[in-house]
């Protein structure tokens, strides 16, 4: 599903108008969707609408009128002067029969029934202070359930950030498409449940808007997902290589290699320093183990182009030897995933990394920083006050580095250098556990080994990782993740209509 920035949503509004949809009709449909949602939770309680003077407030006036016309008790508190209402919002206010009370925290009272938050939506453009802020805080302190119109007031629809203070809604009714701020943190946590209402904006406006951000769901990448074919063989499914750390640092690479195999790579090999060879050989069954010390040997190992995807970083150590191995990997034909220590090793020489990526002429590179690693590698982006929010930061990092950047977190963003981005919302909290990132890096390599394109492979791996964790449930440790994948694959393949045919029955 496309995610529309607030600017793109304004464009959708304009294009809908150009195709004959009246603004007043869109507002009426928006208010109706809110009213329907509120009715479903009222249980005889009164409604208090807190409206602002923009179109978000206009939606609030429509909802107030429709709720009153259905016989519900409705109060309307306006934040700001009535004279500021313009256009469709002024018309909607004109059709509201009840009194318009000047909003104060006291008037909101302690038992306002269900609150409709129609203070700010897409038009929020600065931090909230003064009376609007006091009303947001009063709504949160009231203990009443809040239904937010379009966005919880105070949440930036494009970045998901809290601009000073923000409403904590139990339900948010938004229009046409979700916005990034509904999915990114902390915005997502303020929304409660979500309804996306059709308000009459024709879907074909999207062809003109060309949105670049998407909710991370199988529909985004299933068209290029490597579903195994009955006539396929393991060599067709690629060979993932994970570079191991030394004697007591090999576990991370084992996790990654297991992730790669479970994700469907035909073969997986640990390229390990000789000092750890015996341990790695003893600790693995399906995963092969080969001695590879230092950058030169890695270069030689990768000259066999059947080794077509690799992971560097987990447990690998920070410093010059890691940098040399990364540069050797980037000079090879293999698709490369750089994680953990491989990223931190370039904290003071990021340009060297980016220029090596630039020489790869389109061969896949995926960087998988968590926020600390991101800050170290992309210092300039973090310092740039104009690049606000995780979506734009990931995009800027992808543009700067020339790689697909997977910016981890509970709202993992994957950004491609061409601006395409996915945002995930399916990671359960217990996925934040030691080694989970190593498994993810391996899963990406497993998909790359099967020739999945980089942006889609990274997005798919993030989604699968979240689903595997959710399928296993609380108490998860990273070792459980690869083994939770088969059940997720069964579900995914069934949904794609690609269930494995299994052995043929002969009667
Ligand atoms: N775009 C569309 O297609 C549709 C939009 N609709 C509604 O219209 C909304 C957007 O309306 P608007 O663009 O009028 O914007 P809003 O109603 O969100 O707010 C705009 C007003 O708030 C002021 N403002 C912004 N930040 C402030 C702050 N921190 N403190 C005090 N004042 C602040 C602005 O100066 C402006 O006057 C959407 O969220 C949605 O609810 C709906 O009516 C349906 C159709
Ligand atoms: K709102």
TrEMBL record:
AMP binds at residues 408-412, 437. It comes from the Bacteria. Gene3D superfamilies: 3.40.1190.20, YjeF N-terminal domain. Binds 1 potassium ion per subunit. Its EC number is 4.2.1.136, 5.1.99.6. The keyword S-adenosyl-L-methionine does not apply. K(+) binds at residues 56, 117, 153. Its cofactor is Mg(2+); K(+). (6S)-NADPHX binds at residues 55-59, 121-127, 150, 252, 315, 370, 438. Keywords: ATP-binding, Isomerase, Lyase, Metal-binding, Multifunctional enzyme, NAD, NADP, Nucleotide-binding, Potassium. Residues 9-207 form the YjeF N-terminal domain. It catalyses: (6S)-NADPHX + ADP = AMP + phosphate + NADPH + H(+); (6R)-NADHX = (6S)-NADHX; (6S)-NADHX + ADP = AMP + phosphate + NADH + H(+); (6R)-NADPHX = (6S)-NADPHX. GO terms for biological process: metabolite repair; nicotinamide nucleotide metabolic process. One of its GO terms (molecular function) is metal ion binding. Residues 217-492 form the YjeF C-terminal domain. Catalyzes the dehydration of the S-form of NAD(P)HX at the expense of ADP, which is converted to AMP. Together with NAD(P)HX epimerase, which catalyzes the epimerization of the S- and R-forms, the enzyme allows the repair of both epimers of NAD(P)HX, a damaged form of NAD(P)H that is a result of enzymatic or heat-dependent hydration. Catalyzes the epimerization of the S- and R-forms of NAD(P)HX, a damaged form of NAD(P)H that is a result of enzymatic or heat-dependent hydration. This is a prerequisite for the S-specific NAD(P)H-hydrate dehydratase to allow the repair of both epimers of NAD(P)HX. Homotetramer. In the N-terminal section; belongs to the NnrE/AIBP family. HAMAP family: NADHX_dehydratase (MF_01965), NADHX_epimerase (MF_01966). This is Bifunctional NAD(P)H-hydrate repair enzyme. It comes from Pseudolabrys taiwanensis. The gene is nnrE.
